[in-house]
Amino acid sequence: MKHSHVDRSTRIARIREGKKQPDKYETETWTCTYRDSDKTLYSSTNTGSVIAFDVKNRLLKMGKMEFKKIE
Length: 71
Prior knowledge:
mainly beta; single chain; six-stranded antiparallel beta sheet; two-stranded antiparallel ribbon
């Protein structure tokens, strides 16, 4: 198994009472483990959720949900 890090960046655009508020930026760094056997990168978030990045099929899996990268 190999270990790596994933940086997640988020921008939150807020509007309050019809007026745009300053954008809020957040970043998180996840420590991940890569398994050669299934070509998947596994990470545990701060909330305890397990996220699996299926590198071969370009999928992100969170529980029963799957997200495919669109280019």
